[in-house]
Structure formats: structure tokens, C-alpha cells
Design a protein that fits this description.
The protein has twelve helices and ten strands. With 347 residues, it is an alpha/beta fold.
Length: 347
């Protein structure tokens, strides 16, 4: 009897959530909207915010089999680093992290299809191959043969999948709280299978980003890159790309990735990453309530050659909340790997 009541309660709750999500999606679709801001207007807002960080930006638009792809370029250096953003975001929203990494690398932040200034999604089925095509298009058309690759959350899944499929192009790989390490799914991600829920999750993801710390921490060296201060330029950028995103985004990404209560095989990064173990860093926040650390740590324990770094007190959005520490973890590990390779060559 208790089991029946529990099942009934879960069913009613899921139905209510699905109905709310569907109603929200229909409401958004029917609501009149003003014309979207032109690309250049959005670029100028982002450039203004980056200028406050002392960084000059360049915008590239490349053609690909899945439409036009936008890449934000900052920094300089002999090595190129490509960054892939998470669900509901765009490369520009990681500007503080990209700016910090740009002190050592030429950084290309790619807007995945459906996000930022890239074209709306034009593909069906699992997005791994379209994501790969986006990265290849940017790298090939900008003359980059090999590069370091960093991805956050769903972008971590995209980065890991690319590295597995094209290991000759990736020098070093950093995955920040990536989807795809553990096959255990949080309930909210499973509920995204229901109609309209992914729209709600996307809106929630963008709202969570907006709750970042609004003041830098003066005691931290390089505080301009520390906890992000949301000024009018970043707020305006998020509004403009958010409207663009809601009208042409990959709002069905998660349902494409999953079967009921389980990942599709294309969404599992292990054991494929084991072939790249010596060049793979995985970074997790120990307070991540969106993609939990514990099951991922258990999975990674079977692959001891993959490096796991845990950031204490950090949640899922640590690349936004503390870009300084995030960049330091990536840079220190990359540098250590270079030294290790040099020592091995010398011996």
C-alpha cells in the first residue's frame, strides 16, 4: 500500500512538473518579442566588460556542417586553449576565466550550436558528432593543428568526447565538473526527459549564474579575476544572449543524451578517457549539487592515471564563482605535465 501511494505521489508530482514545464515552453513560444540585437551590438557589450579586465577580444565566425559558429578569442601565447561552455551558457559568460587563462594562452571560447552568437541548432540525434564538427571547424579555419581543450559541465562532455574521437588534436584536457564521468543521474536530469522541463532547467541554469558574488575579494591577488563582479555590461550581455538563446537554443540537448534513467553510450566518457589518462585533468567541487562528486570519484577510482583535483567548498558553478582559483588549478597542472614530459625526454 505504501509503495502504491509513493508511486502515485511521484507520478502526480512528475505530471505537475511536466505540465508546468510544457506551459512555460508554450508561453515563451507565444509571447511577442522584440527583434533580437544585432551581433555587433552584443559583441560591443562583451568587449566593454572584457576591457574592464584589461583584455582585448576578437570575434571569429566560421562556417561548419552545423551552421555558423562564433569563437571569442582573448590572450596570447604559443599554446592555444579551446574552451567549451555548459548548458544554458555561452563563452562570453566565462569571460573572467578566459581572461585569466589568456595571460598564458591564446584562448578560443567556442559558442556551441544554439548558444551565444552561434547559429541555432540544426541537427537531430546525439550531439557528439555535431559538437566535434564545431570544434574542428574553428580549429581548422583559424589554423590551429593541436590545442589544449577545457570544458565545463555539458561542455565537459563535449570536450571529453572530442578528445576521445580526435586524440591527435588534443595536447592536454581539463574537464570541469563534467557530465559523462558517472552513469548515475541526478533526479532533476532524469526529469528533463519530460516535455518542457529542459526549458525550465535552462532558465534555472541562467538564474543560478546570475547569483554569483557581486563584489571582488580585495585580499586575493588578481582580484579582478576573483569572484565575479556582475556589472552593467555583463548583465546586459546575459540579457541579450539569453533572449537569443531562448529563441534558437539546444533546449533538447539533455533528452537527446539520455535514455530513461540512463546515459546513451555516446555520453559515457569512461573507459574511453583512459587512453588519454596522462593528459587528462578532472576538476570537481566538493559541494556540487548538480553533478555529484561522490559517484564520479567512485568511477574515476578505477582509472588512477586520470588526475582528479577537488576544490573545497566549491559548487557546480566554480568556473564562474572563482575563476582565479579555477585557472590556477588548470595552469598548474598543465605546467606540471610539461615539466614531466621534459624530464622524460631528458632521461
Amino acid at each position: 500500500m505504501k509503495t502504491t501511494k509513493l508511486g502515485l505521489t511521484i507520478g502526480i508530482g512528475a505530471g505537475a512538473v511536466a505540465s508546468a514545464g510544457y506551459a512555460s515552453a508554450v508561453g515563451l513560444a507565444r509571447r511577442p518579442v522584440a527583434p533580437l540585437a544585432p551581433d555587433r551590438a552584443i559583441e560591443e557589450v562583451l568587449d566593454s566588460w572584457l576591457a574592464e579586465l584589461g583584455v582585448a577580444a576578437h570575434h571569429h565566425y566560421v562556417s561548419s556542417p552545423v551552421g555558423r559558429i562564433h569563437a571569442l578569442e582573448v590572450g596570447h601565447g604559443d599554446a592555444t586553449l579551446i574552451f567549451l561552455h555548459g548548458l544554458g551558457a555561452s563563452a562570453g559568460e566565462y569571460a573572467a576565466l578566459l581572461a585569466r587563462l589568456g595571460s598564458r594562452f591564446r584562448v578560443l571560447g567556442i559558442d556551441r550550436p544554439g548558444g551565444g552568437l552561434s547559429d541555432p541548432v540544426r541537427f537531430q540525434g546525439h550531439p557528439r558528432q555535431p559538437w566535434n564538427e564545431s570544434v574542428l571547424a574553428v580549429a581548422d579555419q583559424l589554423g590551429v593543428r593541436s590545442f589544449d581543450l577545457v570544458g565545463h559541465s555539458l561542455g565537459g562532455l563535449a570536450a571529453g568526447g572530442f578528445a576521445i574521437d580526435h586524440p591527435d588534436r588534443v595536447e592536454r584536457l581539463a574537464l570541469l565538473s563534467p557530465v559523462g564521468i558517472s552513469s548515475r543521474l541526478p533526479v532533476v536530469w532524469s526529469l528533463s526527459m519530460l516535455p518542457g522541463i529542459t526549458d525550465v532547467l535552462t532558465a534555472a541554469a541562467r538564474a543560478a549564474m546570475a547569483r554569483q558574488s557581486r563584489e571582488p575579494t580585495p585580499a586575493v591577488p588578481g582580484a579582478g579575476f576573483g569572484p565575479v563582479r556582475i556589472g552593467p555590461d555583463l548583465a546586459t550581455y546575459r540579457y541579450l544572449v539569453g533572449r537569443r538563446f531562448s529563441r534558437g537554443a539546444d533546449l533538447e540537448t539533455i533528452p537527446r543524451l539520455m535514455r530513461p534513467f540512463g546515459f546513451r553510450p555516446e555520453s559515457l566518457l569512461l573507459p574511453g578517457l583512459d587512453r588519454l589518462a596522462e593528459r587528462t585533468l578532472v576538476v570537481w567541487g566538493d559541494h556540487d549539487d548538480q553533478v555529484a562528486l561522490a559517484p564520479a570519484r567512485a568511477e574515476l577510482s578505477g582509472y588512477p592515471r586520470i588526475t582528479l583535483r577537488v576544490m573545497e567548498g566549491a559548487g557546480h558553478l566554480f568556473p564562474f564563482e572563482d575563476p582565479l582559483s579555477t585557472a590556477s588549478v588548470i595552469e598548474d597542472w598543465f605546467a606540471a605535465r610539461v615539466r614531466s614530459a621534459a624530464d622524460a625526454g631528458g632521461s
